[in-house]
């Protein structure tokens, strides 16, 4: 039996600077990713996405994520996350959980956490009771019982009644007597539910042969409750009534009896009724509610969209398609109707959603087939820029936990996909083709077949086995010819400003830059001349302006560390930086000038990153024996060292010597080349 859990209070906080570290820890924790592989945790790009997959609540603010905790419901799996997240939780945070009424406190300290059950004595004393005498009367006046044998609640009474009656331990008259003697008909639970509400809620989704054999007994209890004065219009805290649950279970005999006894729907929340109709996909339920209340006049489109996006426990049936047909052909709704406000279809909140997009989110083939036959436009986008095909192709967000289920529906992809849709991008710059690459090879194969028929050059799939040349020759913009061996960059890699106008030439060996690295301006003048050895820059790297003026000169040792004289010139050919390094350390003469303000910022001798003005024992520094106070006094100078190193590099725009970034660029441009 599942345990109901609820977060009573929490101040659990992960600061902003720890969010990425915490996400990486979760994604690389087998104890989480293996157990919950169905959640596709590894595709999450933010920690918020992971927490939402585990149905955890939190507040996102400038501080980071605060008040983290499992919100409420059955099967709290947050206990699997805490061991991984604990090192990133702020010291002293606490979380109080309640599991089926039993409380426990989770405390975070020293990168770990501990769980302490609440002391039973304190628990009862908080309620105003004492456990010193086990036989003391209940604090509520007039009810005396042993603390060890508390009076059963309404749900327990009803459970026992049903069990005894079904087993035959009670006959009809004894069952009626127990209902009257225990006042079962007139009691409510702590959520405002009567016994009638509870029993109808239990059977609202029940099916199967076993249930059908029990139904006559259950119905007899319902009728006795009705005869015993139960309030037929009592509402739960969620605003639902007995008639609502009878309709949810399509128990029409009970519906008729409730209506005959004065049950009404007028107090039910309209949104609850809309969700009920959408879930059941029952024309009879829809017509009953419309006849009684005339509702859905303003919300018919919302109900249609929800019906298209509801699969009733994973089933995609002709009945649902028939229900959608009834909305469009009998009630006159437009097949391309749009709900502009937010609609939650499964775990995705969408705005500007159409019936076809909703059907794609749910993976409802028969509904989508009907809609397209009725004229649904596959090119319509929601507020996030997603087509129906985006939702069929792959995960549109970290929270899209149903993407794997949809990705198995190749027939739905074939139904919706057109050559024009395949490369249309959403607001995040992702096309259906790009999304399908993550988890949906059957969709990629189908997309490629459509593109091949249309005469489109297909992107090269670069995997661990790929060997060969990958080329890009766009009508305008950057072109290239890059070489791979066994999935790794290998050989000469060439990039062009335009056809026959070289931009970059760099040699790779076994996935790392190795050999000459040259860059040219559009005019053909040299921009960069440098050398790499097994992934590291070596020797001199010289940068030039289009007029041939030296801009920057860097020197490296064989380990790729700055070594020797480093120069940076400004546009007026004035010295801005003249610094000497020894194997990665500032060591020697250092000159640093703000040429715009004509102000010299540094002009000093350095030894192993420390200026002469800071007395440092070099031997002690090498052995790690320099005091914290001394290092603290040199903090400003150390920040300058970091700043200086940030200037003495190849820059962000020249990334061709970075294998991971270059490979990502190649794959991205290959996808973008589809037209």
* Overall pLDDT confidence: 82
CATH homologous superfamily assignment of the largest domain: Ankyrin repeat-containing domain
Principal-axis shape: elongated
Tell me the span between the first and last alpha carbons.
Answer: 54 Å
Major sheet summary line: 14 strands, antiparallel
Please give the CATH class of the largest domain.
Answer: Mainly Alpha
Helical content band: 25-40%
Please tell me how large the radius of gyration is. Answer: 35 Å
Number of domain modules? 3
Coarse structural class: alpha+beta
Strand content: 15-25%
CATH architecture of the largest domain: Alpha Horseshoe
Query: What is the CATH fold-level name of the largest domain?
Result: Serine Threonine Protein Phosphatase 5, Tetratricopeptide repeat
The tally of helices reads 26
Features:
single chain; 675 residues; alpha+beta; Serine Threonine Protein Phosphatase 5, Tetratricopeptide repeat; 3 domains; 14-stranded antiparallel beta sheet; 5-stranded antiparallel beta sheet; 24 strands; 35% helix; Ankyrin repeat domain-containing protein
């Amino acid at each position: 039996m599942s345990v109901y859990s609820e977060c009573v209070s929490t101040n659990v906080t992960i600061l902003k600077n720890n969010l990425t570290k915490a996400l990486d820890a979760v994604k690389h924790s087998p104890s989480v990713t293996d157990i919950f592989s169905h959640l596709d945790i590894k595709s999450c790009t933010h920690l918020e996405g992971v927490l939402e997959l585990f149905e955890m609540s939190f507040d996102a603010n400038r501080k980071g994520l605060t008040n983290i905790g499992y919100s409420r419901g059955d099967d709290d799996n947050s206990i699997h996350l805490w061991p991984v997240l604990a090192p990133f939780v702020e010291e002293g945070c606490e979380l109080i959980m309640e599991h089926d009424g039993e409380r426990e406190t989770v405390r975070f300290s020293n990168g770990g956490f501990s769980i302490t059950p609440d002391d039973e004595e304190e628990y009862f004393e908080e309620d105003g009771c004492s456990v010193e005498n086990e036989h003391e009367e209940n604090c509520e006046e007039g009810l005396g019982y042993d603390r060890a044998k508390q009076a059963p609640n309404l749900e327990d009474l009803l459970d026992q009644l049903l069990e005894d009656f079904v087993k035959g331990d009670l006959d009809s008259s004894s069952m009626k007597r127990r209902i009257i003697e225990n006042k079962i008909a007139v009691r409510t639970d702590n959520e405002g539910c009567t016994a009638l509400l509870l029993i109808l809620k239990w059977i609202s989704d029940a099916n199967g042969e076993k249930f059908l054999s029990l139904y006559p007994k259950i119905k007899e209890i319902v009728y006795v409750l009705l005869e015993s004065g139960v309030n037929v219009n009592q509402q739960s805290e969620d605003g639902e009534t007995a008639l609502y649950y009878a309709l949810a279970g399509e128990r029409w005999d009970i519906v008729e009896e409730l209506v005959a006894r004065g049950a009404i729907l007028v107090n039910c929340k309209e949104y609850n009724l809309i969700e009920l109709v959408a879930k059941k996909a029952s024309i009879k339920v829809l017509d009953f509610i419309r006849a009684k209340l005339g509702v859905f006049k303003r919300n018919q489109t919302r109900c249609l969209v929800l019906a298209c996006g509801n699969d009733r426990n994973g089933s995609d049936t002709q009945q649902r398609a028939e229900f959608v047909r009834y909305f469009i052909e009998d009630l006159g709704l437009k097949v391309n109707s749009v709900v502009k406000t937010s609609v939650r279809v499964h775990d995705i909140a969408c705005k500007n959603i159409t019936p076809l997009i909703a059907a794609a989110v749910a993976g409802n083939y028969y509904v989508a087939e009907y809609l397209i036959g009725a004229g649904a436009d596959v090119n319509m986008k929601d507020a996030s820029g997603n087509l129906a095909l985006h939702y069929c192709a792959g995960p549109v967000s970290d929270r899209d936990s149903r993407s794997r289920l949809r990705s198995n529906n190749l027939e739905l992809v074939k139904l919706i996909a057109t050559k024009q849709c395949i490369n249309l991008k959403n607001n995040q710059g992702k096309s259906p083709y790009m999304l399908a690459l993550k988890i949906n090879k059957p969709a990629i194969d189908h997309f490629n077949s459509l593109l091949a028929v249309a005469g489109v050059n297909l992107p090269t799939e670069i995997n661990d086995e790929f060997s060969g040349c990958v080329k890009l020759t766009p009508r305008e913009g950057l072109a290239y010819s890059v070489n791979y061996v066994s999935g790794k960059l290998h050989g000469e890699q060439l990039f062009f400003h335009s056809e026959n106008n070289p931009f970059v030439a760099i040699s790779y060996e076994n996935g790392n830059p190795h050999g000459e690295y040259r860059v040219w301006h559009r005019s053909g003048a040299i921009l960069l001349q440098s050398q790499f050895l097994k992934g590291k820059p070596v020797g001199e790297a010289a940068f030039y302006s289009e007029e041939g003026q030296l801009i920057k000169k860097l020197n490296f040792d064989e380990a790729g560390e700055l070594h020797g004289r480093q120069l940076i010139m400004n546009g007026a050919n004035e010295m801005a930086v003249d610094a000497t390094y020894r194997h990665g350390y500032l060591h020697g003469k250092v000159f640093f000038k703000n040429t715009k303000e004509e102000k010299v910022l540094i002009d000093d001798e350095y030894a192993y990153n420390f200026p002469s003005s800071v007395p440092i024992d070099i031997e002690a520094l090498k052995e790690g024996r320099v005091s914290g106070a001394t290092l603290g006094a040199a903090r400003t100078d150390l920040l300058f060292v970091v700043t200086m190193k940030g200037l003495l590099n190849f820059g962000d725009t020249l990334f061709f010597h970075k294998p991971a970034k270059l490979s990502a660029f190649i794959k991205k441009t290959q996808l973008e080349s589809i037209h």
